[in-house]
Amino acid sequence: MSLFEDENKDSVDVFRFLYANRKALIIAFIIGGIVTGTVSFLLPKQFKSTGIVYPPNSYVRDKLIENPQFGHELEVEHLIQMLESSNVRDSVINHFDLASYYEVDSSDIRWKDQLNEDFDNDVSFMRSPYLSVIIEAQFKDPELAAHVVNYIIDVVNHQKESVFKENIDRELNYFKTRYEDDQRKVDQIVDRIYTLKDTTLSKNLITNYINNLPKESYVDNEFVDSKELEKLIRDYRIYQAQASAKKIDYEQALDASKKPFLHNYVVEYASPNYKKVFPKNTINAIIGALLATIGTLAFLVWKKKLESIL
Known about the structure:
Elements: H1 3-20, H2 22-42, E1 46-54, H3 73-83, H4 86-95, H5 98-101, H6 111-122, E2 123-127, E3 133-139, H7 142-196, H8 205-212, H9 227-257, E4 265-268, E5 276-278, H10 281-309
Antiparallel strand pairs: 1-3, 1-4, 1-5, 2-3
Helix pairs in contact: 2-10, 4-7, 7-9
């Protein structure tokens, strides 16, 4: 017998075997589909809501009104890191009491880890090809899913502002301190000068002296009448110039800090979606039916081989 004839014989034997056990296979397919579909139907339903935001472009702040732009890759990555931070996660968990939602056992030493893991399974953040950030939440309550997404959209702005404000306050304090240090030196020099000069006729001796210096007819030795005073006046002019420059720096930083914080551009707030995303009853029923059929077929093949041996 040729190889071709052997293959034909084997194929015929397979079809005969399947045909002979068709009823068992059909019953297994139907029962597997019904059982899996029923179990799937009884599982808690899950609903998904989605929000979309764009980070602002921090490099066009000065031209924001005439040329507003969305952020680029760096801003997107920063936003995703902020969304995935424990501060945002903990804020959401506490605000919606998700520990009760997940029925976490707080007596378990790992309860916090389990709570975070459940949250990460139900809430996700991803970058779209268009450099937007998609926020998704999947819960048993469609309204809860939408509220969680919208809360995250709002709270991440406050978290970013809080982080930036900490650095801004530190920078402002730096500019303020260095200005006040120089101004304190100026005040000390002024106090020392006024111990050497009589201020009965004028309380603004130093100012008057500085203002009169450019005048050709003014003789400065009428005011500066000692080596000590000459040195004090020289120091005063140096530190006063430094203090004035640092005051300008501080005032510019203070003015910049008062500009409103740039919030993310919200393209789409989430709304409740009452079409469940889990479980997929039809798909689960088909998969269950196929698995039951395959399992039955495997059992029948094993049974036939066992009978041939015996």
